[in-house]
């Protein structure tokens, strides 16, 4: 069977008119002889509205009930697309996450897919139906409904493409592809024709909202051919593929920025053997993701540790740490909110030195103070003040020669 997976995001299914457009796109693929699995997000801003409703009733709604609530959004869109396809005499059947066999762990709100039982979907495709699957939801082995985290429909799509060995997976969205920077922030940002899985993964993790990071991880590990394209305009999108199949490896392919960063600093931590393990296990057990970590030793028996974290999780992190203060033995905890992270990403960094020097020079020319730095083989990130983040992104984009306005080409 030549299966493809098509995923449409919230704006692409934002109204019945848009759903009719999606039905047309699906019809074209059906007529071209493909067996189609279509993964949908909730209509427009439905998920946000549902979150808002729950928060009106309870500041900290239970994650289990949130999953129960949020999964209803996707169920509306899958049923509506199916009826729109029926109107076109196309056989179609909608599937909730659990009907589609998407089995996850039990972490409500950010569940990880453990297994996909593909029987029901394969049966539907063999019958000649379009299988319309609710994005971002799954079920635990105990039958509890879970969600994969905000933006998780991309992950549903890629996971299904991997499990069904689809020819490729298309992510339809409201932009025409992946850009060298967020085009809402950098006017000169350009569409990237092709990008490696590794670069895309870094960009997605670093705040490029166009793809859910876990979807790229899944595409990378299963070598799923992935394309991001517009559901509004019929123009070529961005292909995400293996590095060795790409034409050029640039020193910097894109600039990402993440506006949700905070820093926690622990002072006077005892310098004992496994203190770092104890500290970060406490945070991991509370499912709190830590990003950049900086450790410094002031005295032989004492050190300080600073780490960056999403500001949204900072309160929870501080609670966990305060509860463990006597066990961990730190003297003081400092919190700094209102930060952001700007990053440059490119596989060419591995072979061409100088990116760090250029990045610091650019930020210093713009009078922007760097508070934390982290590097990998293909990325360099700096934590800075949030109100400087837009300016930093624009300056770096220009400095690294990514836009039509660029001064230097490196
Ligand atoms: N509807 C969910 C959200 O808004 C999942 C998704 O669209 O990917 O986060
Ligand atoms: Mg999305």
Note the overall shape.
globular
Backbone structural class: alpha/beta
Q: How large is the count of helical segments?
A: 12
Strand order in space, largest sheet: 3-6-2-1-9-11-12-10
Give me the Rg, rounded: 23 Å
Mean pLDDT: 94
Total strands: 18
Q: Which ions and ligands are bound to the chains?
A: aspartic acid, magnesium ion
Helix content: 25-40%
At CATH's second level, what is the architecture of one domain? 3-Layer(aba) Sandwich
**CATH fold-level topology of one domain:** Carbamate kinase
Assigned CATH class of one domain? Alpha Beta
Spans where pLDDT lies below 50 across 5 or more residues: none
Compressed to H and E, one letter per element, the order equals EHEHHEEEHEEEHEEHHEEEHEEHHEHEEH
What characterizes the major β-sheet?
8 strands, mixed
Question: Explain this structure to me?
Answer:
There is one protein chain. This protein has 410 residues and is α/β, with parallel strands linked by helices. It has a domain of 172 residues: Carbamate kinase (3-Layer(aba) Sandwich). Helices cover 34% and strands 28% of the residues. It is built from 12 helices and 18 strands. An 8-stranded mixed sheet has the order 3-6-2-1-9-11-12-10, with helices on both faces. Helix 6 runs antiparallel to helix 7. The model has no long low-confidence stretch (mean pLDDT 94). The protein binds aspartic acid and magnesium ion. The site of aspartic acid has 12 residues, from loops.
């Amino acid at each position: 069977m030549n299966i493809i997976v098509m995923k449409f995001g919230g704006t692409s299914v934002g109204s019945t008119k848009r759903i009719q457009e999606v039905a047309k796109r699906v019809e074209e693929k059906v007529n071209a002889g493909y067996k189609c699995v279509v993964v949908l997000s909730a209509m427009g801003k439905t998920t946000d509205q549902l979150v808002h409703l729950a928060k009106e009733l309870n500041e900290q709604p239970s994650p289990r009930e949130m999953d129960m609530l949020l999964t209803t959004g996707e169920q509306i869109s899958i049923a509506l697309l199916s009826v729109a396809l029926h109107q076109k005499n196309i056989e179609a059947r909608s599937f909730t996450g659990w009907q589609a066999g998407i089995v996850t762990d039990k972490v409500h709100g950010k569940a990880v897919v453990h297994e996909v039982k593909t029987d029901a979907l394969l049966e539907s495709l063999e019958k000649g139906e379009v299988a319309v699957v609710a994005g971002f939801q799954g079920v635990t082995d105990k039958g509890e409904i879970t969600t994969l985290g905000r933006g998780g429909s991309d992950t549903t799509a890629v996971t299904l493409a991997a499990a069904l060995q689809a020819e490729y997976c298309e992510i339809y969205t409201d932009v025409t592809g992946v850009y060298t920077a967020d085009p809402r922030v950098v006017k000169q940002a350009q569409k990237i024709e092709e990008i490696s899985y590794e670069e895309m993964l870094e960009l997605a993790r670093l705040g490029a909202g166009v793809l859910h990071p876990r979807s790229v991880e899944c595409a990378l590990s299963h070598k799923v051919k992935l394309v991001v394209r517009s559901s509004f305009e019929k123009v070529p999108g961005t292909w995400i593929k293996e590095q060795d199949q790409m034409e050029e490896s640039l020193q910097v392919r894109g600039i990402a920025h993440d506006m949700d960063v905070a820093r926690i600093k622990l002072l006077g931590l005892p310098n004992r053997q496994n203190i770092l393990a104890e500290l970060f296990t406490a945070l991991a057990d509370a499912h709190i993701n830590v990003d950049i970590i900086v450790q410094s030793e002031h005295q032989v028996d004492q050190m300080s540790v600073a780490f960056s974290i999403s500001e949204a999780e900072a309160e929870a992190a501080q609670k966990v740490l305060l509860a463990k203060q006597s066990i961990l033995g730190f003297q003081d905890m400092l919190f700094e909110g209102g930060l952001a992270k700007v990053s440059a990403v490119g596989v060419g960094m591995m072979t061409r030195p100088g990116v760090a020097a250029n990045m610091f020079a650019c930020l210093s020319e713009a009078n922007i103070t760097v508070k934390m730095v982290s590097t990998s083989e293909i990325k360099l990130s700096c934590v800075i003040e949030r109100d400087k983040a837009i300016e930093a992104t624009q300056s770096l984009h220009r400095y690294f020669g990514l836009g039509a306005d660029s001064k230097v080409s490196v």
